[in-house]
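Subject: design request, 162 residues
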């Protein structure tokens, strides 16, 4: 106990928690979980597959937070899942995630009802995301075929060039 009091403050995680936008307001949360301002940038996503309901969709693979105690925090690369599980085990982190999720749902689906889903706290609770299957119209066209069609449109057969 006495030795812990002799460790400089920059050697302890501050556990500060604040919004850190990724692309949209409310879509990210920074958690300073390590000394020197390192931590996690947890991405907050929404799931609106059920009509009239918006709930959080969790990715247990957060980005690495840098300069979390400074003036210009940023993220790069990946942090470990074990760090994510340790962070979401804290009630203050889950409370902040709930606030961010609810605000994001309000922004992206204002007519939907918000439904809170707890983030996974163990590897066994992680579920693989189901993505819709790609259909033929979703796939890119063959570039050679596109060029051939463009040529036909620009130079239709039987039309003399000026």
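Subject: RE: design request

Done. Sequence follows.
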């Amino acid at each position: 106990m006495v030795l812990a009091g002799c460790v400089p403050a920059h050697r302890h995680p501050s556990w500060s928690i604040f919004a850190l936008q990724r692309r949209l307001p409310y879509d990210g949360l920074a958690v300073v979980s390590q000394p020197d301002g390192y931590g996690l940038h947890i991405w907050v996503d929404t799931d609106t597959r059920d009509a009239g309901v918006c709930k959080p969709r969790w990715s247990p693979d957060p980005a690495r937070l840098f300069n979390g105690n400074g003036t210009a925090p940023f993220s790069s690369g990946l942090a470990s899942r074990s760090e994510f599980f340790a962070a979401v085990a804290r009630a203050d982190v889950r409370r902040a995630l709930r606030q961010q999720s609810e605000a994001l749902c309000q922004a992206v689906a204002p007519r939907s009802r918000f439904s809170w889903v707890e983030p996974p706290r163990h590897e066994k609770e992680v579920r693989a995301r189901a993505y819709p299957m790609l259909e033929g119209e979703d796939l890119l066209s063959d570039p050679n075929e596109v060029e051939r069609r463009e040529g036909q449109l620009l130079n239709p057969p039987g039309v003399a060039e000026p």
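The first helix runs from residue 81 to 88.
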